[in-house]
């Protein structure tokens, strides 16, 4: 076990799990768990050694998301979304001195990053922006109507998508790193949801200003295809696997308890448990396969931007999001009333509600429609079966 995973396990078992129900009930930011991750220096693990970080890899982040997902899904999602933003800077900052200095701060100060990619007026299409950079003498201003900025009031910086200039097409986007001191958030929508309540994903009017050196050099289209999309689907799938893993652990404990109570009589849920474990293994295998695919493609912009790669990563999200819900639902049936109750050690309620978010954030119908478009452009691609 890596030292980072060991640290995450300690934070998960000792802190996140202890506060998870309260975080869910009050829809509050999991401040204790995030502080525990900062204390253990886990927010900056992707920062390269040359910039003052430990230089961990995506597999380390995936493992941590899986671990945290077993204890508090909101904490796991916050950690996942943070690392998605970190990976974008690490991979695409290039020689930009401002951003390399920011990475050093991220590692030393354990800064928490959020993102503002969704926007009112574009129909949910994150590859289009109404918001634009207005540049004057090497500085920019921007205003973005963001229907969702997760944990926006608790982060240290936000990565904001915007059109390159007010005259640029909606699809000509860049990412801007905006530290807390350079922004103003006006809350406009609240976050009262079925699950993932601790992410505090309220809507805001975001106003920001800063230096043009805060703009990530690479076009957003490249950042999205080569880094943001695969990282999103890998870390999200990992935390959903964590939720499903915890649901199976609770249902397995319930079946064992029943077996001890009635020796010689197979518990009624034992067969269903065996079947659900097949789905859990399939979900884990899918994640590991696509993680290896991404690790092999890192360093090749052509492979990362290829259509088969995008389809494979989309399929990972589609498959894992459905399997997570299915597995947790099976856990509910295995545990029966004990799983249905909120005051039971075998309660599945929070896990079931959190898992439901997987198919709607980002909406699977939108991803399937994107895959349908990509399929029209694909020739015979054996890579999809690799």
Outline:
The protein contains 12 helices and 7 strands. It has helices spanning 3-26, 31-39, 58-69, 73-92, 97-109, 220-261, 270-297, 301-305, 307-335, 337-340, 349-356, 364-377; strands at residues 113-116, 134-136, 139-150, 157-163, 173-179, 183-189, 201-211.
Task: Describe this protein's structure.
The mean pLDDT is 95. The radius of gyration is 21 Å and the shape is globular. The two termini are 28 Å apart. The protein is 54% helix and 13% strand. It folds into 3 domains: 110 residues, Butyryl-Coa Dehydrogenase, subunit A, domain 1, CATH 1.10.540; 101 residues, Beta Barrel (Butyryl-CoA Dehydrogenase, subunit A, domain 2), CATH 2.40.110.10; 166 residues, Butyryl-CoA Dehydrogenase, subunit A, domain 3 (Up-down Bundle), CATH 1.20.140. A 4-stranded antiparallel sheet has the order 2-3-7-6, with no helix packed on it. α3 runs antiparallel to α4, α6 runs antiparallel to α7 and α6 runs parallel beside α9. With 386 residues, it is α+β, with helices and mostly antiparallel strands.
């Amino acid at each position: 076990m890596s030292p980072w995973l060991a640290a995450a396990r300690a934070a998960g078992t000792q802190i996140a799990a202890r506060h998870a129900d309260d975080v869910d009930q009050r829809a509050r930011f999991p401040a204790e768990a995030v502080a525990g991750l900062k204390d253990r220096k886990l927010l900056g693990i992707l920062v390269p050694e040359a910039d003052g970080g430990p230089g961990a890899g995506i597999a380390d982040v995936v493992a941590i998301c899986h671990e945290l997902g077993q204890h508090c899904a909101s904490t796991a999602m916050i950690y996942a979304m943070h690392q998605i933003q970190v990976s974008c800077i690490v991979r695409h900052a290039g020689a930009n001195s401002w951003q390399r200095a920011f990475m050093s701060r991220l590692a030393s100060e354990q800064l928490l990053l959020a993102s503002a990619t969704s926007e009112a007026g574009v129909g949910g299409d994150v590859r289009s922006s109404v918001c634009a950079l207005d540049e004057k003498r090497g500085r920019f201003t921007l205003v973005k109507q963001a229907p969702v900025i997760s944990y926006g009031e608790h982060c240290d910086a936000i990565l904001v998508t915007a059109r390159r200039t007010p005259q640029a097409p909606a699809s000509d986007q860049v990412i801007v790193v905006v530290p807390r001191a350079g922004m103003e958030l006006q809350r406009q929508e609240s976050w009262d949801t079925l699950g993932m309540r601790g992410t505090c994903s309220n809507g805001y009017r975001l106003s920001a200003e800063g230096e043009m050196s805060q703009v990530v050099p690479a076009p957003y289209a490249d950042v999205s295809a080569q880094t943001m999309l695969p990282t999103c689907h890998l870390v999200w799938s990992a935390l959903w696997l964590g939720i499903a893993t915890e649901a199976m652990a609770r249902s397995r404990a319930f079946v064992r308890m029943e077996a001890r109570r009635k020796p010689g009589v197979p518990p009624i849920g034992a067969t269903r448990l065996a079947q659900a474990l097949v789905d859990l293994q399939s979900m884990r295998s899918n994640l590991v396969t696509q993680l290896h695919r991404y690790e092999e493609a890192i360093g090749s912009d052509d492979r990362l931007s290829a259509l088969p790669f995008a389809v494979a990563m989309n399929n990972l999200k589609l498959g894992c999001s459905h399997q997570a819900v299915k597995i947790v639902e099976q856990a509910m049936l295995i545990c029966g009333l004990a799983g249905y109750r909120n005051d039971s050690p075998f309660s599945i309620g929070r896990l079931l509600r959190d898992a439901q978010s997987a198919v709607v954030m980002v909406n699977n119908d939108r991803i399937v429609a994107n895959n349908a478009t990509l399929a029209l452009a694909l020739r015979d691609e054996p890579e999809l079966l690799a």
